[in-house]
Write a structure and sequence with these properties.
The protein has a single domain (7-290), classed as Dihydropteroate synthase-like (TIM Barrel), CATH 3.20.20.20. The strands form two sheets. Strands 9-8-5-4-3-2-1-10 form an eight-stranded parallel beta sheet, with helices on one face. It has helices spanning 18-25, 29-41, 54-57, 59-72, 84-93, 146-163, 188-200, 231-243, 267-276, 280-287; strands spanning 7-13, 46-49, 77-80, 105-109, 126-130, 133-136, 139-142, 172-175, 209-211, 250-253. With 294 residues, the chain is of the alpha/beta class.
């Protein structure tokens, strides 16, 4: 991997991937174990575990999946479900010894579910904080500016410290949320990058980590860029090229992908930067230049 100090949380144990959904449907525990091993061997520092709605309906299956994964890999796990009961089960099953004593990750806590910080009564953990949404007048709302992302991150960390004294700044992983560029009329990609910059340069947030789910960015795009290169991978690398210097250091992604910085003369990077400077229909029209020459 071409980026120094970029930590990958392996994303593949998730029924959103068709092949993985088949593993779940068939209760193929050996197949899930093989996928865990492949990700760990490819360099994943954590493995995200997302069993979808089955996490709620079949807790025994979730328990078996966690135990089976920890039987074959020693990397810590990230438990991906926005429900305190599910997270409680995961944390109770998690075996610290099999993970070399390293903390798991709770993915994720937002302002709408601050009660989940109380899960530290079970065990210590790192936590992904959703800075892309806030509570305003009792209602959850999506953040629309970099300043709102930054302020939400500060508020979430303050709430964590108020609820328990067991968190260190290194335990916080702030998710800025990365949008699909194909439909980005509102400058959300630019907002995410600017939000990363504000968080990464804030002395009060020194030591926290910043992340996002990178595979979203190329969804609904053609396979090839106008210069013939693989567009999805290039867009992911274009985002990383600009985000990593600002403090983006965690990635929910596929560990065997070739994450590497792009040169300033790269066609996709140049066009990416042009697109994210725009909004509305101008942004959507400019996006076509990524895959359509002329």
């Amino acid at each position: 991997m071409g980026f120094d100090n970029l930590t990958i949380i392996g994303e593949r144990i998730n029924p959103g991937f068709r092949s993985v959904a088949a593993l779940f449907d068939n209760d193929d525990i050996a197949g899930i174990q093989a996928l865990a091993v492949r990700q760990a061997e490819a360099g994943a520092a954590y493995l995200n575990v997302n069993c979808g709605r089955r996490s709620l309906t079949d807790p025994d299956f979730l328990r078996r999946v966690i135990e089976a994964i920890q039987d074959v890999v020693d990397v810590p796990l990230s438990f991906d479900f926005p429900n305190a009961g599910v997270q409680e089960l995961c944390l109770n099953v998690y075996d610290f010894d099999k993970a070399g004593g390293r903390k798991p990750i709770v993915n994720s806590i937002a302002q709408t579910r601050l009660d989940m910080f109380a899960l530290t009564r079970i065990c210590p953990f790192k936590v992904i904080l959703m800075a892309s949404e806030r509570v305003e007048e009792g209602v959850g709302r999506s953040n629309r500016t970099a300043g709102e992302i930054h302020e939400t991150a500060r508020q979430l960390i303050e709430a964590a410290h108020q609820s328990t004294g067991s968190f260190e700044m290194d335990d916080f992983i702030i998710d800025v949320s990365i949008s699909t560029m194909a439909a980005d009329r509102d400058g959300l990609t630019r907002m995410a990058l600017d939000g990363i910059g504000l968080i990464g340069s804030d002395p009060a947030l020194k030591g926290v980590h910043i992340m996002g789910g990178l595979s979203n960015i190329g969804q609904q795009m053609p396979a090839r860029a106008a210069d013939g290169s693989p567009l999805g991978q290039k867009l992911e690398n274009a985002f990383l090229t600009d985000a990593v210097p600002l403090g983006f250091d965690f990635l929910l992604g596929t560990p065997w992908k070739d994450y590497a910085p792009l040169g300033d003369d790269d066609y996709v990077l140049k066009t990416f930067r042009e697109v994210i400077a725009l909004s509305g229909m101008d942004a959507l029209r400019a996006t076509r230049r990524l895959y359509r020459a002329g």
